[in-house]
């Protein structure tokens, strides 16, 4: 039975509880590449996957600040588990923006019952990240459409009940087709071999004449014809994952220093936690992590403000706030993943501890999109008042 969460406060309480559970075996799951199927079932049953369903459809409709904090908490425990439902929330959001009343009712009911959305979005070997070759063409018999293509980095697809597929119609317009995981012609291949985020199963989806009825297709291109928060919301969740990785690494580094590390002999201290240079470094890192958390919260508040009064200006301000949070958090997460060894000393590098998962996870996830372009948009906005583009990745 899937629980239905009532409000923001309950969503945060449930996330804290689950994060505590997920943290226990996170290092072992990573080391053994043990896919988190049971953990995701608990996540579904908890009701957390339905917290952005509108209240008019029975959901909690939590704020962007709350959903960002939920992702940060889960990511601090296990960023693999946090990344898997990122696309789930993005494609719930697509339905909120462009779904018909019938589509919203059907799919929001599915989400409230604990069903999971995966994704089949990115493609490899194309000119750039938004060059989509997957086709959605009218079926020869005139009944619905046929999907054909190959998708990569399909995080969540292996664990999904529904796989939203990004595809182009004959007129080059972009649509999302919501396809059952067991649809004929759809194959999910568990071939993800990244050095980090090992248990996200971000592998390949093959689509061969997959039949899709018209009522399961949403016109995604319409999202970008006016002020929109699609990109800001999606990027907010990615930023929260990175901030969570940094938070988790800081916590584990501090615990290692307190319980396992030795002081440098010149410090004159009996414990590493009393070594003044270790204290200094931990303080510097803590300031960066707290700043990243504050920027994430401010970004969530900006998205909420734009939702309340959506204009070109408010949408642009939200995108810039999210870009700022992510541009700051990405290098902080990578730095924390490395600093854990700097603080822990030689013994922290033992393979059995698997402390390198923090760096591997941070380095892999922060490759999702380049922070350098976010800095460009931030600079243009601050210097010249130029609003960011509506391409959905900012």
Automatic annotation (TrEMBL):
<dbReference type="Pfam" id="PF02771">
    <property type="entry name" value="Acyl-CoA_dh_N"/>
</dbReference>
<keyword id="KW-0560">Oxidoreductase</keyword>
<dbReference type="InterPro" id="IPR036250">
    <property type="entry name" value="AcylCo_DH-like_C"/>
</dbReference>
<dbReference type="Pfam" id="PF08028">
    <property type="entry name" value="Acyl-CoA_dh_2"/>
</dbReference>
<dbReference type="InterPro" id="IPR023922">
    <property type="entry name" value="S04_starv_induced_SfnB"/>
</dbReference>
<feature type="domain" description="Acyl-CoA oxidase/dehydrogenase middle">
    <location>
        <begin position="128"/>
        <end position="210"/>
    </location>
</feature>
<dbReference type="InterPro" id="IPR006091">
    <property type="entry name" value="Acyl-CoA_Oxase/DH_mid-dom"/>
</dbReference>
<feature type="domain" description="Acyl-CoA dehydrogenase C-terminal">
    <location>
        <begin position="236"/>
        <end position="369"/>
    </location>
</feature>
<protein>
    <submittedName>
        <fullName>SfnB family sulfur acquisition oxidoreductase</fullName>
        <ecNumber>1.-.-.-</ecNumber>
    </submittedName>
</protein>
<keyword id="KW-0285">Flavoprotein</keyword>
<dbReference type="InterPro" id="IPR009100">
    <property type="entry name" value="AcylCoA_DH/oxidase_NM_dom_sf"/>
</dbReference>
<dbReference type="InterPro" id="IPR037069">
    <property type="entry name" value="AcylCoA_DH/ox_N_sf"/>
</dbReference>
<comment type="similarity">
    <text>Belongs to the HpaH/HsaA monooxygenase family.</text>
</comment>
<dbReference type="InterPro" id="IPR050741">
    <property type="entry name" value="Acyl-CoA_dehydrogenase"/>
</dbReference>
<dbReference type="InterPro" id="IPR013107">
    <property type="entry name" value="Acyl-CoA_DH_C"/>
</dbReference>
<dbReference type="Pfam" id="PF02770">
    <property type="entry name" value="Acyl-CoA_dh_M"/>
</dbReference>
<dbReference type="InterPro" id="IPR013786">
    <property type="entry name" value="AcylCoA_DH/ox_N"/>
</dbReference>
<feature type="domain" description="Acyl-CoA dehydrogenase/oxidase N-terminal">
    <location>
        <begin position="16"/>
        <end position="114"/>
    </location>
</feature>
<dbReference type="GO" id="GO:0016491">
    <property type="term" value="F:oxidoreductase activity"/>
</dbReference>
<dbReference type="InterPro" id="IPR046373">
    <property type="entry name" value="Acyl-CoA_Oxase/DH_mid-dom_sf"/>
</dbReference>
